[in-house]
Specification:
The structure holds 2 protein chains of 2 kinds.
Chain A lengths: L8 E14 L2 E7 L1 H6 L5 E5 L10 E9 L2 E7 L3 H7 L6 E8 L11 E7 L6 H10 L3 E8 L13 E5 L6 E2 L2 H12 L4 E6 L2 H14 L2 E5 L15 E4 L6 E3 H4 L2 E3 L3 E2 L2
Parallel strand pairs in A: 7-8, 7-11, 8-9, 9-10, 11-12
Antiparallel strand pairs in A: 1-2, 1-6, 2-5, 3-4, 3-6, 4-5, 12-15, 13-14, 13-16
Helix pairs in contact in A: 4-5
Chain B lengths: L4 E3 L2 E3 L3 E3 L21 E3 L16 E4 L2 E4 L7 H14 L4 E6 L4 H12 L6 E5 L10 H4 L2 H11 L7 E5 L6 H10 L4 E4 L3 E4 L1 E2 L4 E2 L5 E5 L4 H14 L4 E4 L5 H10 L3 E4 L2 H4 L3 H15 L26
Parallel strand pairs in B: 3-4, 3-16, 4-7, 7-8, 8-9, 9-10, 10-15, 15-16
Antiparallel strand pairs in B: 1-2, 5-6, 6-14, 11-14, 12-13
Amino acid sequence: MAERDRHIAQLLTPVLDRREVADGIFVIGLESEHLARYAEPGQFVNVRCGDACLPLLRRPFSISRIEGNTVELMFNIVGQGTRMLAARKKGDVVDVLGPLGVPFGLKGEFETALLVGGGLGAAPMPLLADHLRREGKNVQTFLGARSASQITESHMVNAEVATDDGTKGYQGTVVDLLKRFVTAMKPMRPKIFGCGPTRMLKALSEYADVAGIECELSLEGDMACGIGICQGCPVERADGKKKYSLVCVEGPTFNSHDIILR
Amino acid sequence: MKESFTLRGVQFKNRVLVASGTFGYGDELKDVVDVNALGGICTKSLSWKPRDGNPPRRIVETPSGMLNSIGLANIGVHRFIEEKLPYLRTLDTTIIANIAASSVQEYCDVLSLLEQQDGIDGYEINVSCPNVKEGGLNFGTNKEMTREITARLRPLTRKPLMIKLTPNVTHISEFARAVEDAGADAVSVINTLIGLAVDIYARKPKLSTVTGGLSGPAIKPVALAKVYEVSKAVKIPIIGIGGIMTGEDAVEFLLAGATAVQVGTASFINPSAGVNVAAGLRSFGEKQGLSDIGQLVGAMESNVGVSILQSWL
């Protein structure tokens, strides 16, 4: 982290917009000049969803999209915190800590970025696609969900869709969908960017190995602070130099070869 | 209004410290928090060798609290001295090195090594981590072992020596008496309470180590009762810890008998929590027209009823 300038700030951000973009999936737009200026793709914010002791801890969300000074987070309702966040109205103020974590690597040899999002793993893809295109990269997005009602394609770049129940796009997993495209992509020097449930990331990482494609993953971790203090979010390292990395400060983005998913 | 207090000749600029394990080594939060506005920093527990800590999952939120099983993950005392201490030396606040170990000798070795360095103002001895097999709670729930550790460390330093006690015993006051007898300058009361959270669908514990340590506002009443109990048993100062989120919470601890407090879990939610608690405590004292915030210490009127605690004190 020492080589990167950190711009972590505790911010009181007004809610500009809150909408349900798919079944049970919400986007909340927060006004923050600071985040708009400094946040990079793959970074996250740690959000105080309530203002009392229930829930007590902040909740981490990856930054989904930035337009002007509007910073959007995408989330589904999994518990009390996200339910409270979804109930926030325009004009409410949300306490946000960020930007946090190490962003995705946008530079490098690759020409084509394959963005693979499983479920809410779609969240960081719009901002990522935006920055990749500024770097002159081609972007192809693959989204997976249980069903058509849980897919949101807005602001996704060149999206292909997979659903478990076949109600939209390819019937099967998003990794299987990706495989169908990769042969055609191979000459275009691809790199995979993945985000989603651990099981999906494991399958993605194994496939990337077989296909010989560089693969970067964004992980989730059970964290309290989001800034490397609580030590709550270890992920096993592959290199053995030390046993664990912390998802919050050494990630959430990792090269798939650097970590062991279980 | 006077805010400072002194422990064995070391002055703390105010009575609000940040608790071990909730503020890292002090440098992680330097851009976000006015660290010098704190009464002191207790470092993450330091052991002789680095410790990886426990496998995930390490943290679970529970009602008004959190359950953790970090397992004393730390960079070890040598790297601490090399990489962290130079920054801590530049701070204008009191630095308390927290030490954890799996043998009495290891406690002595870590403390002795730190004694040779500049920049450490005092020590807090963690004999009460609930999440490691050897050392930790096995020491802190054994009164004679707790006494022995204190007695062995006492001759090694002239700096303040604080022993952090566990509430996971029948009568914490007996442990406080033991460490007072052995020469401790203060007791930190309390470390986390052992707790369990269950994944009802997997029918498994949520934490990898089954149980963990409960902290946060959920434990504040327990902590206050333990501070009160200890205050009736010993004369040495008590550093009150447990769920402090606001200046008013700190006032409660002082009134119950704490000389100072530590803010822990609250720093995870708001990195400036310790600074805010210090400001809240100051503001309360000023509004009450106090000349010294220390006038609050032990000032709770307790002869209004008979506590069950009296029976074992």
